[in-house]
Amino acid sequence: HFEPGASMIGAGFWHPEPELLAKLRGAVVGDPDGFLALAERLTARGSSVTCENERLSRLPRGFDAAKDTPVADYVCWKNFLTDIRVSDDDMQSPNLIGRIVDFALAAKPLLDWGWAAAADDIPPPLTLKMPTRPLPQPDF
């Protein structure tokens, strides 16, 4: 579906590592209304959230809660991207920089969402619980 003579400007999370992908999917399931609102805002600005046809055929293990929900398809995605297409004429236009800036401003909420998901659920530092009573003394 890519037109000859067109270029793409994109942003998002393409082929994230499995740990990050699980966090992105968790963020979709954790706040489905927020994610759908984000996707709607991008679409309203002329740039929808896409996955470039790379998706699982069924829900990944551990995400059964998304079954039969409006975000079930998103949870199967392997990428979370947004892009716009620009023609060769657009690429040579003095308006190109403004178009790129507008796209970056539109895409930033998707990036902020993904960065927040990446930072979430970071395991706390390992703490060792000390016994509440004294340890027995060795007998040697």
Describe this structure in words.
This protein has 5 helices and 3 strands. The protein has helices at residues 18-30, 32-44, 72-75, 88-91, 96-119; strands spanning 6-13, 49-50, 80-87. It has a 3-stranded antiparallel β-sheet. The longest helix has 24 residues, at 96-119. The radius of gyration is 22 Å and the shape is elongated. Mean pLDDT is 86; it is low at 124-128.
List keywords for this structure.
alpha+beta, 3 strands, 5 helices, 140 residues, three-stranded antiparallel beta sheet
Topology at a glance:
Blueprint: E1 6-13, H1 18-30, H2 32-44, E2 49-50, H3 72-75, E3 80-87, H4 88-91, H5 96-119
Helix pairs in contact: 1-2, 1-5, 2-5
Oligomeric state, counting identical vs distinct chains: single chain
Q: Return the average pLDDT rounded to an integer.
A: 86
The global form is elongated
The total of helices stands at 5
How many strands appear in the DSSP assignment? Answer: 3
Largest sheet: 3 strands, antiparallel
Class from helix and strand fractions: alpha+beta
Give a short summary of the structure.
41% of the residues lie in helices and 13% in strands. The protein is of the alpha+beta class.
